[in-house]
Amino acid sequence: MKIAAMIVNLAITASLSAQMPSVSSGRIIRIENFNSEFVHARNVDIWVPENFNNNKKYAVLYMHDGQMLYDSTITWNKQDWEIDETMARLQQAKSIENCIVVGIWNTPLRHMEYFPQKALGYLTTSQLDSILKANRGEGSTHLFEEDIQSDNYLKFIVTELKPYVDANFQVYTDARHTFIAGSSMGGLISMYAICEYPQIFGGAACLSTHWPGTFTLDHNPLPYALLSYLQNHIPDPANHKLYFDYGTATLDAMYEPFQLKANQMLQAAGYNENNLKSLKFEGENHSEIAWSRRFYIPAEFLLGKN
Questions:
Q1: Which range of residues forms the domain containing residue 18?
Q2: Residue 3's pLDDT is what?
Q3: Which terminus of the chain is less hemmed in, N or C, by CB atoms within 10 Å?
Q4: Measured on CA atoms in the order 24, 157, 64, 6, is the torsion positive or negative?
Q5: Is residue 286 exposed (0-12), middle (13-18) or buried (19+ Cβ within 10 Å)?
Q6: Using CB atoms within 10 A of its CB, is residue 210 exposed (0-12), middle (13-18) or buried (19+)?
């Protein structure tokens, strides 16, 4: 086993015994060390609402970066999405469907698992070689320490995790009630998921979508490769909903030109205000605090009863 892979395995093993998140409403059901044929094992923290019972069915929202969703006291940056508070408030107000949230933990291979794999096919050989050698910053390690694994990550969700959730929870299993969401690289993989599996996911929320793919725009072909992929894999607007947004501070300041191009593509393919929402948040930065403040908007857009 390569040294890098050994380090990843050790890091994942050490994290799997992490403390359970404390939630203000509902409860967390943890699937610990969920094994997969496709990717490294990881925890999955499923939030269910206060009144959760088997006499009714629930929609399902799959979310990436699962350890960042519920409890800021146990996250690395002391921030969280406040998913339990937001989802509980919206369901109690009956403004969204009854829903559970499946929080899928990330791993040290996050960048490799979340980068849309088939977008690489739109790069030249020299561009691909340059990208695979790119660093997060000067003196840092390569962004892609291992092979890009997003196709396998989605296989894990679609062929292993979703069947488990469908079999063990009283949920709707059709695409109309199945959604996926994330931010930054999690926004990219959510876009990729609905494009690759439109028969599985009826809607995707992509917050602060990290169109650059790396951390520079200088001589960076990745945004155009990602947009080319999207252009050729747009899900049918007749039965899908897409949400995108971005702020204007920190990393989010890079996103607007690419998001506007994506919007144009989607509108040309038949998306309109009923199935596409793309918002700009002046002054908002790239953080869980920012995403927690506005998550109610995509939640209502995807899960709203109207």
A1: 3-303
A2: 41
A3: C
A4: positive
A5: buried
A6: buried
What pLDDT score does 145 carry?
77
> What helix, strand, coil percent values describe the chain, rounded to 5?
40, 20, 40
User: Measured between alpha carbons, how far is 245 from 210 in angstroms, rounded to an integer?
Assistant: 11
Domains: count for the chain: 1
- Residue 139, pLDDT score: 54
CA gap 87, 291 in Å, rounded:
14
Q: Which residues of 20-42 are buried (b: 16+ CB within 10 A; e: fewer)?
A: ebebeebebbbbeebebebbbbb
Strand ranges for the chain from DSSP E: 27-34, 42-48, 59-63, 99-104, 178-183, 203-207, 241-247, 276-281
What pLDDT was estimated at residue 8? 45
User: What's the pLDDT tens digit per position in 172-187?
Assistant: 999 999 999 999 999 9
The distance of Cα 178 from the centroid of its chain, to the nearest Å, equals 13
Residues of the chain with pLDDT under 70: 1-17, 136-140, 306
Considering just the CA atoms, what is the radius of gyration of the chain in Å? 18
User: What is the β-pairing status of strands 42-48 and 99-104?
Assistant: antiparallel
Residue 183, phi then psi, degrees to nearest 5: -130, 155
* End-to-end Cα, the chain, rounded Å: 52
Report the CATH number that the domain containing residue 270 is assigned in CATH.
3.40.50.1820
Whole-angstrom CA distances from 6 to 1, 40, 68, 291 are 7, 12, 24, 33
> Which pair of tokens denotes residue 84?
């339990």
Taking the C-alpha atoms of residue 138 and residue 116, their distance in angstroms, rounded to an integer, is 24
| Other beta carbons within 10 Å of 141 | 10
